[in-house]
Write a structure and sequence with these properties.
This protein is mainly alpha-helical. It has helices at about 5-35, 40-75, 90-95, 105-120. The chain is about 75% helix and about 0% strand. Transcription factor that acts by binding directly to the RNA polymerase (RNAP). Required for negative regulation of rRNA expression and positive regulation of several amino acid biosynthesis promoters.
């Protein structure tokens, strides 16, 4: 991967990270603002369900931010774009679709097949 491509992925990851952090901040503000007392039990239950879903989504995004940070560290270390299993380059098309990928498509498929075999036991 050349410098231009590396910089493209660095910017893409940084923009994605910032977008997720902004969404997280808006969620926190929204949860703080919506701490109102709702008298109707059905409305209160609906709001609690919405809050729980929002918090689960934010937790997934928090984990995604950690993976983005790892990808950015791999860029800094010169390890970005190489499969952790085979050491072979990950295709640019795959990285563009999933910039946090750590496995080549072939290694990912093998991993998923082995997971399925172990899950079926």
């Amino acid at each position: 991967m050349n410098e231009r491509q590396t910089e493209y992925f660095r910017r893409k990851l940084q923009a994605w990270r910032e977008e997720l952090l902004d969404e997280g901040r808006s969620t926190i503000m929204g949860l703080q603002d919506s701490s109102r007392n709702i008298p109707d039990i059905a409305d209160r239950a609906s709001e609690e369900t919405d809050r729980a879903l929002e918090l689960r989504t934010r937790d997934r995004q928090r984990k995604l931010v950690a993976k983005i940070d790892q990808a950015l560290r791999r860029i800094d270390n010169g390890e970005y774009g190489y499969c952790e299993v085979t050491g072979e380059p990950i295709s640019l098309k795959r990285l563009d679709a999933r910039p946090i990928a750590t496995l080549s498509l072939e290694a990912q498929e093998r991993h998923e097949r082995s997971e399925k075999v172990h899950r079926d036991d």
